[in-house]
Specification:
alpha+beta, GMP Synthetase, Chain A, domain 3, 3-stranded mixed sheet, 3 helices
């Protein structure tokens, strides 16, 4: 596989972050959040995590596969695989209470 240029790498990462920023409000409206954990813009592997109320939500896997994965692979032709997970470090009862929109996401520097 040929290596991509620094400009292409930067362009791909910016496009990925912009697309995730478009999707995040829908997840946040239900008390969760969508976080980018890792992106290999050369191989096309992207890893995301659902947080907050998503950890107790019965349709989290559907959100990851039917929503996040589909949107990323449809709109970014270089994305080959989306690895998704749910942050299960939060107590399930606390997670369920966040579904009312009380979750305020913590932003992390990458």
């Amino acid at each position: 596989m040929d290596s991509i240029t620094d400009l292409e790498r930067s362009t791909r990462l910016k496009a990925l972050n912009a697309l995730l920023d478009l999707m995040r409000p829908a997840v946040q409206a239900d008390g969760g959040d969508l976080v980018l954990l890792r992106a290999d813009v050369e191989t096309g592997v992207v890893e995301v995590q659902l947080q907050g109320a998503c950890s107790s939500c019965a349709i989290s896997s559907t959100t990851l596969q039917g929503g996040v994965t589909r949107i990323l692979t449809d709109r970014l032709d270089w994305v080959t695989e989306v690895i998704g997970g749910v942050d299960d470090s939060i107590d399930p009862e606390d997670s369920m209470s966040l579904g009312s929109g009380g979750y305020v996401p913590r932003f992390r520097q990458l």
